[in-house]
Design a protein that fits this description.
By secondary structure, this protein is α+β, with helices and mostly antiparallel strands. It has a domain of 54 residues: Multidrug-efflux Transporter Regulator, Chain: A, Domain 2 (Orthogonal Bundle). Helix content is 35%, strand content 11%. The protein contains 4 helices and 3 strands. Strands 1-3-2 form a 3-stranded antiparallel β-sheet. A hairpin with a 2-residue loop joins strand 2 and strand 3. Helix 2 crosses helix 3. The mean pLDDT is 84.
């Protein structure tokens, strides 16, 4: 190897999708995919899920998946400034 050459290590152990698979409509996303769909890190996505800005995932047979429509709707509320984390919102006095 020449001096200054860089070595790249593949960290994703999931098999890559074929063109056909990648063109199929996605109804559910894994945590990292859901985070990437709104251009944030998985850690920030976890924070947004914990405080209610993003939906909680659905655990199915030990796999946690996020519904793409729920993530989209949560993003649209954030984008439009309609989300508030005030715990008293909706409380009638």
């Amino acid at each position: 190897m020449s001096r200054g050459a860089q070595t790249f290590i593949q960290t994703d152990t999931r098999p890559s999708m074929s063109p056909r698979e990648s063109s199929l409509p996605r109804f559910a996303l894994r945590r990292d995919e859901a985070a990437a769909s709104v251009a944030i890190s998985p850690t920030k996505f976890d924070e947004w899920c914990a405080d209610g800005r993003m939906p909680k995932g659905h655990k199915i047979d030990g796999v946690v998946l996020w519904d793409t429509q729920e993530v989209r709707e949560a993003w649209e509320r954030l984008r439009d400034g309609q989300h508030s984390i005030n715990p008293f919102d909706g409380v009638v006095a």
